[in-house]
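A reminder before we start the practical. When you read a complex entry, don't treat the lines as separate problems. The point of joint prediction is that each chain is placed relative to the others, so the output describes one connected object in space. Small molecules and nucleic acid strands, if listed, are placed in the same frame. In the example below there are two entries. Take a minute to note the order of the lines before looking further.
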Amino acid sequence: MPADTKPTLDHPVFKIVKDQFPGKRFRGTEYRGQSTLIVDPADAHEVLAFLRDDASCRYNFLSDLFGIDYLNYPSRTIGRFAVVYNLVSHQRDDRLFVKVFLDPSLPTDGTADDPALYLDSVVDLWPGAEWPEREVFDMFGIRFRNHPDLRRILTWESYPAHPLRKDYPLRGRGEREQYRIVDRTSA
Amino acid sequence: MGIEAALPVDGFLTTQLRRVINWARRSSLWPMPFATACCGIELMAAASSRYDLARFGMERMSFSPRQADLLIVAGRIAIKTMPVLQRIYEQMTEPKWVISMGACASTGGVFDTYAVVQGCDQYLPVDVYIPGCPPRPEQLLEGIMAIQRHIDQSGIPPTPPGGRRVPLGLVIEPTHRVRPQPVGITVGGV
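Here is the predicted structure of the whole assembly.
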């Protein structure tokens, strides 16, 4: 790795979080001034609640929440899926990414309810997380515990896949071709 | 420019019923705009004063399919939109025509993904295809005039002797030449 792209892990929140949770494992990275804190899935909700409420963090705003599928990613990653929380503190004018990696335990080509792909919902911390979490569920099949209304948001209930998974073909499996044909005799 | 200019002095003229009905029908095509993407912007431009869709008796965009004759599918059709579009088409009363406006409505365009229907003509009877991404308003008018020319030739009701009107399947080619717009601007008297 060239020296000028080596991450500088000097974000002040890294140290605060490490001191607050001495028994937990954290990883951090940085790219062009944007710092990412990588948290284990089981710890995510607790750490996020701390980041929101602690007086020296004050990440009062969840700017975005989205999923990533790292299948066939060119470099090595910690897990197959990631969920990223994009936190903003208006008081401190600061932005922090919190990333959680998840590895599936079942085949990912269908819509199976995989117990390994579960996270605690953060709707209780930031109510605005409700629809982004529904979208992550819809597109990646990652489910959220304690979500008030975890339904698919973009595709329909019986859609046979989670379409943003990289092992789902770009052109789909025929979902765009299953319509009745309306012609001049029927209408 | 209306029919009164053709009337003789004593105030009546004789014609065929079919011609009068077709004249009225093609001069009052009410479009149902189904605008889902940037083609819809060009459709709005065609309705604006510069291109003036009202010249063709279409100034009343009908946002109720039950009072429309011409469905203009302008934009890409997502997988969840296709059943809606079919229902809108079925709610329209006969006689009705369908224009597939732009590359996305006709073929899916660049959106060759699981979420976009690759051409609404697979599931709807399309009468006129207008190519372009998006087509210029002139080209949309060309497509509308193609339907008007077809109506002029049709019978009452507008069906062929076999009873079933097949979709026309016309493809419009641009006939206009794009030229710089005449804008003269002076700033500070210069």
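Discuss with your neighbour: Chain B has one domain: 3-157+165-171. What might explain this?
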